[in-house]
């Protein structure tokens, strides 16, 4: 499989095509306000940290977003329990205040449907590590969204993240890719991403009735969504797993 992986700064003409790539994200994920407001800023303001893979036809086969941030800044020092949302806020706060970054965080690796199951995600992760190393960073961290957790929404993430196969590698496929690449599971980010909306919005996003109080299992969600139909809202708080890659 002949894929060409470059940064967006090297090929700015791919800024529009990368958004047209069909992926497998559930619709509700895009309604996290941090994602909605900031993901596009990575493309415009941090193109050196956007990787795009194109196939022999020039079509986008995969994309990977990352952000540099100052983990060692005052008041930080530890990977945040707020996970994906928090590291995005830190990164753009650091950019605004011209604070020197010391770490790169993965934000997203997405593979086009036609290329799923062909090892492309691992190649994009390797390219992300190489890109960070080339820019002088010693570590990449990743708030990993375990890609088989949605099959067991009731399972506790702390237990799930520690499951291993007989060969000692993580049971979850995406965590396994990270560990094989040299990553180490560091901790769980219990509130990595939050999506709140009215019950009407959740019905539109999922096609489910959202008319019963309590936990609602939603396809693609890693944990149940908490529904309050009498009050007209529902909230999803997604846990992720922090993985550290020392370069």
UniProtKB/TrEMBL annotation:
InterPro entries: Acyl_CoA_acyltransferase
Cited Gene3D superfamilies: 3.40.630.30
Protein name, per record: N-acetyltransferase
CDD domains assigned: NAT_SF (cd04301)
Organism: Streptomyces longisporoflavus
Taxonomic superkingdom: Bacteria
Cross-referenced SUPFAM superfamilies: Acyl-CoA N-acyltransferases (Nat) (SSF55729)
């Amino acid at each position: 499989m002949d894929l060409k992986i470059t940064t967006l700064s090297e090929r700015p003409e791919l800024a529009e095509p990368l958004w047209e790539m069909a992926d497998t994200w559930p619709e509700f994920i895009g309604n996290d306000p941090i994602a909605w407001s900031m993901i596009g800023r990575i493309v415009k303001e941090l193109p050196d940290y956007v990787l795009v893979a194109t196939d022999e036809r020039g079509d986008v086969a995969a994309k990977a977003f990352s952000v540099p941030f100052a983990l060692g800044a005052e008041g930080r020092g530890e990977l945040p329990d707020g996970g994906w949302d928090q590291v995005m806020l830190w990164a753009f706060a650091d950019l605004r205040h011209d604070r020197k970054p010391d770490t790169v965080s993965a934000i997203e690796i997405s593979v086009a449907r036609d290329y799923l199951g062909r090892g492309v995600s691992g190649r994009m992760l390797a390219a992300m590590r190489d890109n960070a190393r080339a820019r002088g960073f010693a570590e990449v961290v990743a708030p990993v969204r375990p890609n088989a957790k949605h099959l067991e929404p009731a399972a506790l993430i702390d237990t799930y993240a520690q499951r291993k196969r007989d060969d000692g590698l993580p049971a979850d496929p995406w965590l396994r890719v990270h560990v094989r690449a040299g990553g180490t599971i560091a901790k769980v980010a219990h509130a990595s991403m939050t999506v709140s909306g009215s019950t009407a919005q959740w019905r539109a996003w999922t096609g489910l009735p959202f008319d019963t109080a309590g936990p609602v299992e939603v396809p693609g969600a890693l944990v149940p969504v908490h529904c309050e139909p009498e009050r007209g809202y529902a909230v999803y708080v997604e846990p992720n797993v922090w993985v550290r890659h020392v370069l």
